[in-house]
Amino acid sequence: MKLTNGERLITLMLCELYDKLDVMGEVDPDFLRTAIYTENEWSLAWKYPGIPFESVEEPPELREVLDILEMWSFIEMSYNELNEQEKNSLISKTHPFTTAPKFPGFDGNNEAEYISISSILIDQLDRFQYFNGRDLNAHMPTLEMHRRMLEKFKEVREENWNLLGIDELESVLNERVHPENRA
User: Fold this and answer.
1) pLDDT score recorded for residue 175
2) What is the mean pLDDT of residues 123-146?
């Protein structure tokens, strides 16, 4: 869905009226404001699937964010299912990283669109609740790392839809290190 400037203004004014009059309706004015201010109007059709919105192309970053969040969900859940010995072994094999794998987010300066989409998905659309409440700003570029990991993740997941085993986790997590910096 793409709103015109006039429709955006009218929607924001209606949100203010909702707030002033303390209207308790099915439409969430805070969500509408967020979708408009962050230019994530695609999310309106996701939040309100019963409204027959005109079909429009979703931003290409959306599919990539969905894939990255799915990958990190599987990584973190798979890691949590390992026993302590397996966790220690994995961490020793994924040097220089010495802590449990955790979704780092995206760079707030150069990957802000990715943070915005992630935030809408997690906080407003209640998807990927595993990441709810986390700071999504990595304060450093992460997109290329996610893309390398995602390529390996898709390869590993081609034949298997269960949680990842220790060897699969290791192969995906080792993609965090840029190829030029590998020993």
Assistant:
1) 95
2) 96
Domain hosting residue 37, numbered range: 5-47
- Angle among Cα 89, 90, 94 to the nearest 5 degrees reads 120
1 pLDDT band, cuts 50/70/90, is confident
Give yes or no: residues 40 and 123 share one domain: no
**What is the model's pLDDT at position 17?**
95
Q: Which residue has the higher pLDDT, 27 or 55?
A: 27
Cis ω for the linkage preceding 52 (within 30 of 0): no
Are 30 and 120 contacting, i.e. CB atoms less than 8 angstroms apart? no
Residues 145 and 71 in one domain: yes
Residue 83 domain-assigned?
A: yes
Beta-bridge mates of residue 106:
137
List, in sequence order, every residue forming a beta bridge with 137; answer none if it has no partner. Answer: 106
Higher pLDDT, 177 or 111: 111
Q: How many helices (H) and strands (E) does the chain have?
A: 8, 0
Nearest CA to 121 out of 70, 54, 178, 179 is that of: 70
CB 106 within 8 A of CB 160: no
Characterise 120 by phi-psi region: left (phi > 0), alpha (psi -120 to 50), beta (else): alpha
> Residue 51 gets which letter from DSSP?
S
Closest CA to 29 of 39, 42, 18: 18
pTM for the model stands at 0.91
CATH number at residue 136: 1.10.3190.10
